[in-house]
Every structure is written in structure tokens, then in C-alpha cells.
Amino acid sequence: MYRARLAQDKAKELGIEIIPLPGYSLDLNPTEGLWKWMREEVTYAYCQPSLEALHAACREFLARVNQAPLTMVERLWPRWELDPDEEKLRVSA
Hints:
The chain is mainly alpha-helical. Helix content is about 60%, strand content about 0%.
């Protein structure tokens, strides 16, 4: 939570509700999801032949996902509820 009085006062003035989150919330941090997505597509079960190739593959991934920002948001936005069918699959094991 923002502890600075100035930030709290400004948020209140703007009508912004500050919600305290746990210190480290992977599931609420879209950057973590982006890293995971990039690892899945760039390095999962594959070793790039050189550092330059890895760098190029990362740049290509970022260029591709930036071409479809709504797709990126849909994939990375935190989900507060699971699809009932997906939830059944996750729970029944």
C-alpha cells in the first residue's frame, strides 16, 4: 500500500480507492505472466544457438505481442473467477 501521505491524499482527492495487496502477489502482477509467456514461446524445451539468437527471439516475441494489445491484456489480466468447466478440471484430480 502506498504509505506516503501525499500519495494517499492525492488518491482520495481523485476518488481512487487504494487496496492493500500482499507484499508479493505473482497472480496480480501481469509482468510475471508476460515473462512466463515469453519463456514458453522462446525457450521452453529449446536452447537458442547463441546469445544473439536469444536476444532476437525475445525482440520478435515482444514485437508480436505488441501488435495485439487486446490479446495481451486478455491473457495477462488477473482472473477473479475461473470458467466453471476449467475449475472442475483443476479441482478434480
